[in-house]
Write a structure and sequence with these properties.
Layout: H1 3-21, E1 24-25, E2 31-32, H2 47-58, H3 63-80, E3 114-119, H4 122-130, E4 135-138, H5 145-158, E5 165-169, H6 172-178, E6 182-185, H7 187-193, H8 195-204, E7 207-212, H9 215-223, E8 228-232, H10 248-259, E9 264-267, H11 275-279, E10 285-288, H12 290-293, H13 298-311
The protein binds the ligand Cc1ncc(COP(=O)(O)OP(=O)(O)O)c(N)n1, 4-methyl-5-hydroxyethylthiazole phosphate and magnesium ion.
């Protein structure tokens, strides 16, 4: 197939999926605009791969995600023996996501983690656990090891007598020492933890959640078979400087279709009014910071957000 024919195929994909994945405005205060990206160098030469690489870049997927999608589109074409431009890849087999050894997976956690409060101190953790928030996280940012150990221990104490599942962000060793329910790490944390320490966490039975921001990171997260996968940032957030653009609802829905064999958590800029649309994508959990911590009445906000979760 020549260059013009590949371009025509790419245009056909864009025409078919542009309304879903092109520039979008999901919500007045939460515009998610995805700008076309440069096409990365091609790793292979098949027409389906080349057309998908061009199309996914035009649809705003960053290089690693366009590459991951293009490879998946090629595998889908080989598996089904046709290049179906209408079918956005969503089969785990086409992303190399099947076939992990269950014996090597991290401990399970419920698919429906529900409202997930990401909280700055043990005091907040206790407060939201007592308000009935089913999943809470201590996100205590400090390099002071003693302060971290004390805060993690206090958070573990603070959820005692409640039903809350407590995840500890970043500080995995302190979480293990204190006997927390789970640990949450980002992609950069995965880079530094190392295979031996991952094995220590896995065999301890502590649940293990991993942040992702797109297709390539989901594939990478799957390699360690975590307990859950977090997807975000869905909308713009002021709380954390993100390396990637907000993903928006259409991408979130596509990620959920692909990753439905995991418990999934949506995070980033999710305010109460956005709960129904986020929940409708099929995620079992919505994680928030400001919607709880900045609320005039955090216990009341927790009640409202839990009701929103349960409405869907
Ligand atoms: C539920 C959940 N999802 C994502 C994050 C972000 O984690 P990370 O990418 O490691 O960034 P920091 O929170 O460490 O700044 C999270 N904490 N919780
Ligand atoms: C920690 C984190 N990771 C991705 S977005 C985010 C912050 C979410 O905060 P908010 O719910 O206030 O936007
Ligand atoms: Mg982190």
């Amino acid at each position: 197939m020549d260059t013009q024919e590949i371009q025509a195929l790419a245009q056909a994909i864009i025409h078919q999926h542009g309304a879903t994945f092109g520039a979008q405005l999901h919500h007045d205060a939460n515009s998610v605009e995805l700008t076309p990206q440069p096409v990365p160098p091609a790793m292979r030469q098949e027409p389906a791969y080349l057309a998908a690489l061009q199309a996914c870049s035009s649809l705003g997927f960053i290089a690693v995600d366009a590459e991951t999608l293009a490879q998946a589109w090629q595998r889908q074409s080989e598996r089904t023996q046709q290049f179906d431009i209408t079918h956005w890849p969503d089969d785990p087999r086409d992303f190399g996501l099947s076939g992990g050894d269950p014996a090597q997976a991290f401990a399970h956690c419920p698919r429906e983690l529900g409202l997930y409060g990401v909280l700055p101190t043990a005091e907040w953790v206790g407060r939201m656990a007592r308000a009935g928030v089913p999943t809470v996280q201590l996100r205590f940012k400090s390099d002071d090891k003693a302060a971290v150990a004390a805060e993690v221990k206090a958070a573990v104490e603070a959820v005692k007598g409640t039903k809350a599942r407590l995840f500890i962000n970043d500080h995995w060793q302190a979480a293990l020492d204190a006997g927390a329910y789970g640990i949450h790490v980002g992609q950069e944390d995965l880079d530094v933890i190392g295979a031996r320490d991952l094995e220590t966490i896995r065999t301890s039975g502590t649940r293990f959640g991993v942040s992702t921001h797109g297709y390539a990171e989901m594939v990478r997260a799957h390699a360690v078979q975590p307990s859950y996968i977090a997807l975000g940032a869905v909308f713009p957030t002021t709380l954390k400087k993100m390396a990637t653009a907000p993903q928006g609802l259409s991408r979130l829905a596509a990620y959920v279709r692909l990753m439905q064999h995991y418990p999934l958590v949506a995070i980033g800029g999710i305010s109460e009014d956005l709960f129904p649309a986020v929940r409708a994508t099929g995620v079992g959990s919505i994680a928030v910071v400001r919607a709880l911590v900045n609320a005039p009445d955090p216990e009341g906000a927790a009640r409202d957000l839990m009701a929103r979760m349960n409405q869907a």
